[in-house]
């Protein structure tokens, strides 16, 4: 189990060290267009899960949306503090 902040630190480390087989490295290399499509895809899956699926499926889709959101922030060089100051 990890928190949103802990995941972001982990992804920053993946971006820095670029380990073989990392999903994050592949997603970063795919570029902003592909990253944006993933954010939209996962957001749609969250909506579908909320309307038609189980609590567990909703939670899983939400985790994927959070991951994809972090990837797009990371690719742009933003930190979580850049976002938190608007909360
Ligand atoms: N939380 C995630 C995570 N969520 C989603 N994904 C990626 O997203 C893929 C699933 O996306 P798809 O679009 O294929 O999913 P889908 O077909 O829509 O699947 P469903 O939504 O229908 O279930 C997975 O195979 C992963 O590549 C993730 N990849 C990595 N992480 C975490 O990120 C950290 C670093 O991972 P690596 O970079 O792979 O080392 C680790 O803590 C991982 O657990």
Automatic annotation (TrEMBL):
Keyword Ion transport: no
GO cellular component: cytoplasm
Enzyme type, top EC level: hydrolase
GO molecular function, one term: phosphoribosyl-ATP diphosphatase activity
Subcellular localization, as worded in the UniProt entry: Cytoplasm
Keywords linked to the UniProt accession: Amino-acid biosynthesis, ATP-binding, Cytoplasm, Histidine biosynthesis, Hydrolase, Nucleotide-binding
A Pfam family reported for this protein in Swiss-Prot or TrEMBL: PRA-PH
Major location category of this protein: cytoplasm
EC number: 3.6.1.31
Pathway(s) per entry: Amino-acid biosynthesis; L-histidine biosynthesis; L-histidine from 5-phospho-alpha-D-ribose 1-diphosphate: step 2/9
GO-annotated biological processes: L-histidine biosynthetic process
Superkingdom in the source lineage: Bacteria
Catalytic activity: 1-(5-phospho-beta-D-ribosyl)-ATP + H2O = 1-(5-phospho-beta-D-ribosyl)-5'-AMP + diphosphate + H(+)
Family matches, as PANTHER family: HISTIDINE BIOSYNTHESIS BIFUNCTIONAL PROTEIN, HISTIDINE BIOSYNTHESIS BIFUNCTIONAL PROTEIN HIS7
Family: Belongs to the PRA-PH family.
The protein's name: Phosphoribosyl-ATP pyrophosphatase
Species of provenance: Halopolyspora algeriensis
Lineage of the organism: Bacteria, Bacillati, Actinomycetota, Actinomycetes, Actinomycetes incertae sedis
